[in-house]
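User: Fold this, then the next.

Assistant: Folding the first:
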Amino acid sequence: MLSIASALFLASLTVTPTLQMAPKARPEAVVRAGKARFTVLTPRLLRLEWSKSGAFEDRASLFAIRRRLPLPAFRTWREGGWFHLSTKALHLRYKPGTGPFDGENLEIALHTGGIRTVWRPGMEDKGNLGGTVRTLDGVNGAIPLKKGVLSRDGWYLWDDSKTPLFTEKPDPVMGMPWVRARPGREYQDWYFFGAGRDYKAALRDYTALCGPIPLPPLFSLGAWWSRYWSYTSEQFKDLIRQFKEHGVPLDVLVIDMGWHLKGWTGYTWNPKYFPHPAHFLAWVHKQGLKVTLNVHPHQGVGNHEKAWKAFAKAMGKDPEKEKRIPLDVADPRYMRAYFDILHHPLEKEGVDFWWIDWQQGKKSGIPGLDPLFMFNHLHFLDAGRNPAKRPLILSRWAEPCGHRYVLQFSGDTWSTWASLDFQPYFTATAGNIGASWWSHDIGGHMPGPVDPEIYARWVQLGALSPVLRTHTTQNPKAERRIWAYPEPYYGAMKKAFLLRYALIPYIYTMGRKCYDRSIPLCRPLYLEHPFTEEAYLHPDEYYFGDDLLVAPPVTPLEKATGRTVVDLWVPPGEWEDWFTGERFKGPGQVRLFVPLDRVPLLARAGAVIPTSPGVTRTSQIPASPLVLEVFPGAEGGTELYEDDGISQAYISGDYAFLPLRQESGRGESTTLTVGPRRGSFRGMRKTRDLEIRLRGVLAERVEADGVPLPRAKDAEGPCYFLEENPRRTVVRLPALDLSKKHSFLLTPKDPEQDALVRCVKSMAARLLDAAAWTGEEGLRKNAAAAEQALRLMEKAGPTETRKMAALLEDVLSTSAQLLSLQQPADPTARKARERALERLSGVGVALALVTESGRPGILARARGFAGEEAGRTPCTLQLV
């Protein structure tokens, strides 16, 4: 049930398709002091206006569209010629009658978010953490970013004084509010964000004022094929068949500018490449794919277009006399014809959405109006004219508030390691200004080295970022079909594609959280740890949603090891490597040696990650088994979000959440609760096949709602079974009724054995790596012993496994001593030895191991750990 205040708030919104405006603040939130006016928007957000004429602005600006927010508590008073305004977070002091705001007559004291400071106009925001930029066109490496809302200084100021305004009444031609320049007068219009280091509150305030970050349609989270190449319809069909033959997932087909007739701008199918476009698009849809077309609107409309006569007449021009009608994005008449005559007929043929490729500057017929903003705004609203279809565009970022128009396209970057190295930081930092759905050219666009390794690493980044869209320029050598590359590159890239699709239920859930709470999918570490210095020092590392941590490899494999070295900061708590099962305990740093087919991906202990392994289309997810990856060792969980995936009904309440919660501790049983589902939406399935995968634990007993399950892998009904590689307990529950709450109790057979096995695997992997890198005969023998230990431990009991662990620990120590005896002259061999020593000892970590005698492990003693730590956390990498 909505509260009365919430109902009145919703009723106050001026509704434009997919965009809600409520520009006029509540009268009770507005206070005047001489020629100044102050509006309390939230306890942490103030609007500051000064007008020489005393006339103020209540219309929506391109930045601020929702000033009518719930009324915060505040008080005002006058004292000693000063006007005071105080909320629970801010204290404003202004001296009326002293002219425009400056450092002498206005100050705001912050006492919130762990920060106490005083801001005055003119102060430099030295602690700003950055936001984003319009485009990365032509960028080869790093560039400075514009400011975001988040600052270590605790405040951010947006000057809205010259931002164009939306009209109060809809334009009669377009049927929606249009844009007008600001009146020319002496006027200040500022927005002061003062959330301290409560960064999440700052983002909520930003979107409360400027509009939410929309939830993209489900299909957009799948894989995209994009390449600047003049494909024919038959070549596209063959390409799509190849995806299917190789089992590589795909959801979106991007058709670049070769689809239309001559020139940079075009709206007519080229019959040379697409003789029957409607039939082709229908065939593509039958394969379960969506289609987007590239459009460059800069050159207007020429007389070679199929729609030329209709367009010219709509513009009041003689089609026989004119040759071209120039673009005028500020003219409602032009834009009405632009959509109705040029775009809508193509959409009727089967085009699902548009890629707006605007690169031509910021000037328009309205002072201060960026054409890119207007294209994004209008295309997004036009795409949402049918409530059954969720709007989507692909376009470059335009200020202000480009977050309202998803998705963002980063432009034509260079295909180099330097470009790849910049993108993890760029992607995560962009969330500081709401740009949460960046799509990069995976592999790079501009000519560069056609290197299979860099492409594989870029694909891995794409798999663990908002959008996975491959692309390149018209370079015949720049292959983007992953199966065209030899092993190990193809295998590494396909593994990344499959991982992406498995994680889509989790990603979509985080997308809903982004819409509700403005927290991006890819988050800088400091968003979760604002007072931890280390969280500001690892720009290539980010949270991927609530419970996953990613550090994409962005440098080449080392010649000496065949691995990429990644130094990772692990946040507080225990974290498990998604691929190896190795455990880390933070806070602290660890050095990882990452092979080509892996990326550092850690899951928080206590996490329950909803997945959909095995699907190759996002449309297959609702009917596929829901697989829960459960990482024991702490309490935790999430709420799986679902809706119809395609309509705007999620905005009005058509969706469902499925609670997923685990309670477990080291050496204890794990209890997992699922449901009951809350909410509903069209097409929702009441039942679903469920699979639980309890990581690193072999259970001897599993109960479902109090009933013991049989241990049988091929049973038709509910059952469970055990697997050794990877080590886990798998529970299968067909046709589970999700409208009810279910409880599952998994009791481990031998918790100590589970922990020791993880330990032995970690040590054996270190020995095998060191032997492979150095070629030392002694290490080869030790590695052979490690492999034997791995085989034996599958059937060994705790006593035998404990002995193996103690033996391997001693082997690790003697192997390290062996490597330190001599230093080869060859630089590569010397580097291999250095890396092998790091791998054996664990740079920045100590292996806490309970041996048979209960003594701390050799490595633990070497790092000065106490026996208590070693005993409490067996087989966990302790970070120092």
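Now the next one, as you asked:
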Amino acid sequence: MRTETGQVTSLADYRPTDFVLERVDLTFELDPTETKVEARLIFHRREEANPNAPLVLDGDELVLSSVLFDQIEIDSERYTATPDSLTIRDLPASEPFEITITTLINPEANTQLMGLYRSNGIYCTQCEAEGFRRITYFPDRPDVLAVYTVNIIADKAANPLLLSNGNFLGGAGYGEGKHFAAWFDPHPKPSYLFALVAGDLGLVEDTFTTVSGREVALKIYVEHGKEPRATYAMDALKRSMTWDEETFGREYDLDIFMIVAVSDFNMGAMENKGLNIFNDKYVLADPETATDADYANIEAIIAHEYFHNWTGNRITCRDWFQLCLKEGLTVYRDHEFSADQRSRAVKRIGEVRHLRSEQFVEDSGPLAHPVRPSQYKEINNFYTTTVYEKGSEVTRMIASILGKDLFKQGMDLYFERHDGDAATVEDFVQCFADVSNRNLSQFSLWYHQAGTPHVTVSCDYDTNAQTFTVKLAQTIAATPGQPDKKPMHIPLSFALLANDGAMIAPASASGGEVSENLLHLTEAAQSFVFHGVPERPVLSLNRSFSAPVILNFTQSSDDLALIARYESDLFSRWQALTDLALPVLCEGVKQVRAAQPVLFNDALKRSLLAIVADDTLEPAFRAQALALPSEADIARELGGDIDPDAIYAARKAIIHDIAVAGLDIFKGLLAQMATDAAYTPDAKAAGQRALKNAALAYVVQAENDPLKAAEAYAKANNMTDLSHSLSILAHHFPGTTETKAALSDFESRFANNALVLDKWFSIQATIPGEDGLVRIKTLMQSPKFNAANPNRVRALIGSFAFANPTGFHRADGASYSVVTEEILAIDKRNPQLAARLLTSMRTWKLLEPQRAGKARAALTTIANANDLSNDVRDIIDRILTA
């Protein structure tokens, strides 16, 4: 029978709590299977609240031991307790009072990894969004801010380390082999930022002197023996602290900042005040075990969680509908940090690739929702690319519209006005409206309307009048719950290029607001006329991806080739190559399905090889240029009737054609980018490796010979080169002697390194072809596959479902059945992970009819299953019914 769907929570129903929480004193007596938690909570009734309203506290699978009012046991008639709530009646109308609640929880059995859990001998917490209610009964919502004192009691031998938020007050022995530690956080915070860690871990220490001269102790805790692999994370942390002071004027506010790395974690990291908890894949790195991408991710995520200290912790969210207020803003901040640390253009290309492959897909399907949703059934399912990445793009557009100086003033006002608040999107936007005297009400539709705007573009040049007219029209398709859309304020950065590539500066412009090379599209249809334009220009539009929109703009191959050759904005050069490639790739798919030879486009070939051979361009950018649109990009461009096998075959044929045409260039790059220098993870060296490895892939495909990849594998002295050459072997020459030998060597060499073995699983999970299912089933039986570890599940099942279209979308539907079984099994122990895996099937309606029918049948199996979690029930209902 079907489980009942969860209740809908609506933004319109928000109201403050009836009681104000002033202080929280927590005492934990840690035990693997029966941890005792005492929570002393000081409340007073809000003045405007009903004087007879009861105190209602949230819980989740809790066992209540006792409840006291001002240290006196409450009569059972005055309260009602269930595992999921505690209601206390007959409370004072005005004066403060104390409620003391004692609960018993089982950390060892907590496979959801929410609340307090114990894994690999380490006690750890994850409380965002609603995990704290799995620890004790509490007003578990983000607008309830209080100061916390935490006492932790535990066995000293097993748990020499006892950590929580804030500053360390002291500790001592506690008799019978136990000890305790006390922590105090002076900054009021919501319960989702609470953290506790206890166990036996190694330590990497450093200090940071803030701009005002305060010394902050920095501590990163990792498993013993892994300390040397945390040095890069420490360096990234210090650089983040300096950058936030210099760029946003934000100084750290406690005496200590701690990071703990754990291997069993549902998320990437968590910004708990003063005690960040990380998935260890985003902390641990050395040249032998981490790729350049791993280093870059560590740098970005360390920064992201640290930046939350102000955008998320000091200023938090009034309710979970405002999640983008902390996440979208902080993603923008970490993107800017990474751009300053590395290549801004290459970073921007990577951001847009990710946005298009994930968020645009989300925005056009059954899971579409606004950046600031108006309702939800399960908040865990709204930690999405829309909230994070599109939310970041909305902040970026504010910065573009206002300009650097006004944006900085708006941010300063936000920090000044709302420090210590639980704020809303409206609070944030109002700060920028106030400093700029600009009405941002239309712009705010970016927060409220789901869907990706499509902007249709046409141009006309009048030789006699020397005017150039740009006609723009915007539309947004209907999305679940939003059939009608209003015109958005879309800022489009532009340049006019002459035939020799020089920039043309028009004498004037009319038809709408044009400022700082920015067209402000604010109407459904709008024409901008540029005057004093001496020749027909080539329009480069949406430079640096100034707005997260889809341009319907048909430009000639010659115009695109000119942009690819001359544009000063490197993102636009890359975009021109993409716009040249996508029509060729899509036509190739049609040719494959019609059993015709795949034809090529000489303009694309010339433009691509010219950029690759241009030594004046940074290697990292040239490597990005070589990464043609992915299979997912092609599927998105086709828009429906998707045949993954045809897409794969067409793309492979076109890449082979490029490889053969540019073989001499690629061989030259292999030699030019090779180096005997010691590995360093800096952006320049990483860019050279990226170009070398991209060239290697093209050479191997041109020659159709595994030997060069096998030689590269044998010579590799760092994980970037090693894993890339292994991937080339596995993906292009599966089953060969060379590939089998390399896979076996990799497995045995890194048998005791879980993070590197994740790469081994992922590389095999993404080998294209229908044989992938047999491979996945075999790997699932491997003793090295741990279904209880989220990283390992994501590496195998997640990689297969999200990143292997030909394997996952087998025409017979067999892969759907296997992954469906895994999702149902995972849902029993870890609903968040199961729900994320289920989103791999969100585009099932776009598949060709046979595959779509098989996918629907598999999804229906999930929908009809007994006892689904709210997380999975919410996703499956939306995927099937939208």
